[in-house]
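Input structure tokens:
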């Protein structure tokens, strides 16, 4: 009888251990599934774009990562009080390869307005840019 009691206790411990292991794995998987990728929302895409555009002196922008944030047909309009320029995604990425940015660049959002409908979004953003010479006047960008 003593042997059977030990066997039953041992099986109960195994059962509890396996149950705890299963629950901990299930919680981990659930937590990974519910954690939203930054690129899963418009705000996340814009924040990631700002992170990618902001670089230290001597660094180069990861234009492949920036390309992956947008639909290939995305267009960008960059405007300041004097002028505006509208470019395709490919043209925008060429502009970002300018050695000017390798001197260090920081872009900080001041305000944005997002219009979206049926999976399509248009973002109007006002930002400050800081290069190696200091802060620049606010500019705006529209992303469609």
């Amino acid at each position: 009888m003593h042997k059977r009691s030990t066997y039953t206790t041992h099986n109960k411990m195994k059962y509890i251990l396996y149950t705890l292991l299963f629950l901990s794995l299930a919680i981990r998987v659930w937590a990974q599934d519910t954690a939203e990728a930054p690129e899963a929302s418009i705000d996340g895409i814009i924040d990631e774009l700002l992170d990618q555009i902001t670089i230290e002196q001597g660094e180069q922008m990861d234009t492949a990562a920036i390309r992956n944030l947008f639909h290939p047909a995305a267009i960008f309009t960059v405007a300041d009080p004097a002028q505006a320029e509208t470019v395709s995604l490919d043209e925008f990425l060429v502009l970002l390869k300018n050695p000017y940015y390798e001197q260090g660049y920081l872009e900080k959002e001041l305000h944005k307005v997002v219009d979206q409908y049926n999976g399509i979004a248009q973002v109007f953003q006002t930002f400050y840019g800081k290069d190696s010479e200091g802060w620049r006047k606010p500019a705006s960008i529209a992303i469609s």
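The mean pLDDT is 75. Strands lie at 75-79, 84-88, 106-117, 120-131, 134-135, 139-143.
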